[in-house]
Amino acid sequence: MAITNPMNNGVATGRLVSAPTIKMVSKNAASVQFRLGVLRNFKTKGSYETDFLLFNSYFAKAAQSKLLARLKDTPQGSFISVAYHVQSYETHSAVHGNKIQLSLVADSISFINNSGSDESYHQEDDNSATPF
């Protein structure tokens, strides 16, 4: 099991910018990528700005069926809350040399509807689906 630094955790709530991309990375794991538009809670030059955050997640087979079905039916603009952690990894290329890249990895996704109730989906505790 990977150890996660508690300083690298966060929660973002916003609107789904486009349809999520779902890829089966193996028989036992799915990769889900989606972009969330998060409104800042302060004004810059008199108006609020929006940050667009790209999330990646890898879900083991036990969590796949309900989550994937729910994501496929989620329209653009839906209100979503994501608990995530920041993951770093090093890449190397002949042109750019070594680089450290950061990725926002969703640990749980909550779909919030107008009535105030929500549905939540969490990653499994085993990290067999995590490619890094």
UniProtKB/TrEMBL annotation:
Alphabetic keyword roster: DNA-binding
Molecular functions per Gene Ontology: single-stranded DNA binding
UniProt-listed SUPFAM superfamilies: Nucleic acid-binding proteins (SSF50249)
Lineage: superkingdom: Bacteria
Protein name listed in UniProt: Single-stranded DNA-binding protein
Organism the protein comes from: Candidatus Limosilactobacillus merdigallinarum
